[in-house]
Structures are given as C-alpha cells and as structure tokens.
Amino acid sequence: xxxxxxxxxxxxxxxxxxxxxxxxxxxxxxxxxxxxxxxxxxxxxxxxxxxxxxxxxxxxxxxxxxxxxxxxxxxxxxxxxxxxxxxxxxxxxxxxxxxxxxxxxxxxxxxxxxxxxxxxxxxxxxxxxxxxxxxxxxxxxxxxxxxxxxxxxxxxxxxxxxxxxxxxxxxxxxxxxxxxxxxxxxxxxxxxxxxxxxx
Length: 199
Ligand code: ATP
What we know:
This is Chromosome partition protein Smc. It is found in: Cytoplasm. Required for chromosome condensation and partitioning. Belongs to the SMC family. The relative contact order is 0.11. The protein is 35% helix and 19% strand. It is globular and about 75 Å long. It has a six-stranded antiparallel β-sheet with strand order 2-1-3-4-5-6. The termini are far apart. It is an alpha+beta fold. The chain has two domains: 2-133, P-loop containing nucleotide triphosphate hydrolases (Rossmann fold, 3-Layer(aba) Sandwich), CATH 3.40.50.300; 170-199. Bound molecules: adenosine-5'-triphosphate (ATP). Adenosine-5'-triphosphate is lined by residues 12-13, 31, 33-39, 63, 65-67. Residues 12-13, 31, 33-39, 63, 65-67 line the site of adenosine-5'-triphosphate.
C-alpha cells in the first residue's frame, strides 16, 4: 500500500487543481518558505478526516478554503482527493486502487466519497484505521511534534504508543458498543415498564 497521488483544488494556497503523483518509497517536497509544503501535509490529514482547525494550522475549519490573493478571488469550496495503491489488500476494500475524497463548502460541512461513492466520515475512518493509518494514528508527524513527544509526561507518552499500536480503534469500538448497550438497556427498561402497565 502506498500513496499514488494527491489532488488539491481550492485547498489553502492551491487555488487551481494540482496533482502530485508519488512513487513507492520516500518522497521529498522542497520549496521556499511559505510556498505551501506544509499545506500538502495538511491536505493529507484533512482528506483522512481531520476535524481540528488547530491541527490544520487554522482558526476555523473554513480556513482550509482558498481565501484569495491580490490577483485571484476567493473560492467557495476546497477539494482534496487521495489515491492509495491497494494491490496488497492492506485496506479492507475490494479495490486495487482506492480514492478518498473530501469536499468542504464555505456555508456547510464536509462531504466524503470513497471511489466516487459518497459516504460518511465514519466510513473513511473505519477504512483507514483497520490498516493503521488515519488522522489519529500518528502517521503524520508535524513540525514541533517530536519536541512534544520528548517533553511529554510518561502518561502522555503511553497514549502516543497506544495510538501508534492501534489500540485506539479498539477503544473507540468499545466505547461505541458500550453506548449501544446503554441505549439497549434503556429500551429494555422501557419495554419492561410497558409490559408491567399492560398486565
Ligand atoms: P515553511 O517552509 O516556512 O514551513 P511552507 O512551504 O510549509 O513554509 P505553508 O505553511 O504550507 O508553507 O504555506 C503557507 C502559505 O499558504 C502562506 O503563504 C499562506 O498565505 C498560504 N495559505 C494558507 N491558507 C490559505 C488559504 N486558505 N488561502 C490562500 N492561501 C493560504
């Protein structure tokens, strides 16, 4: 599994559609300060479902949409598409190539699609977390994050290791199952009450 391409359109400084084709192995992005290198990494996190504006180095989520320059008007939407080579079947989906797309409009929330079919954020998260990637899996190490790891308390460091080891997805599933169980128990109590009333 490797990232085959990343397309940005209206995302941060990338007003026009820009596609980066990648090969297996190491890719380096070089450029002068402020030319948009970190914006490419932000796009990667964003398309995988990042929900925090701060993690994307903005004040609010709409800040990812191209805000305009002296010579170009602002845009109304940001779009990013990430294509992953899945010939090794690392992603639990029956396709050798998987494209995850996210679109955000200035006046609304985000839309997601997997291979052209619209889906929920949860579907994207589930697809990625099973393979150990995704926005919370520490696959993206931002500037200053290494310092944060070195300065972390033992408890925080344990959190990093647990997340990297894939414990997080099981914890999330457990929390979801417990919430379901709670609502089932509430339903059961209600059924028992109703049965008592009928008798
Ligand atoms: P450095 O080497 O200094 O870390 P960089 O190449 O990583 O720089 P980025 O931080 O990716 O650069 O890009 C910063 C640029 O992106 C700035 O010029 C900023 O104005 C522009 N930018 C960020 N958000 C938007 C937006 N919503 N619309 C237009 N331009 C934006």
